[in-house]
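Let us practice reading a record.
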Amino acid sequence: MSTPIAQAVTVTGTEAAVCADIFHRQQLGTKKYGMTVAENPLPLRAWLQHAYEELLDQAVYLKRAMEELDQMPMLVIGGIASDRDSMLVGTANDELVPSILKPGDKLAVMYHQGG
């Protein structure tokens, strides 16, 4: 069964990446099972079982990722003094060391609070 697309639209960004992932998953599923999800005659209980098992797998993946984060060394970013042209970074033993970052540089930070 195919669904016609009303109009072609150029989509970019995260949503486009998710749509591309869905498309590729459908291609793999159709190749593996010989039908789309819509064409599959499984009863509702079986669909719920599949979803439940996928969520259990997701919980394992999330726990594994959290364990990896917990093993990462903690780095504390120090402030930027107004009379300096660079940042200081605090290490785990409270030693301040110069950073290669300069005021105005962009930095992506992932915050993790252990516990």
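A brief commentary: The longest strand covers residues 88-90.
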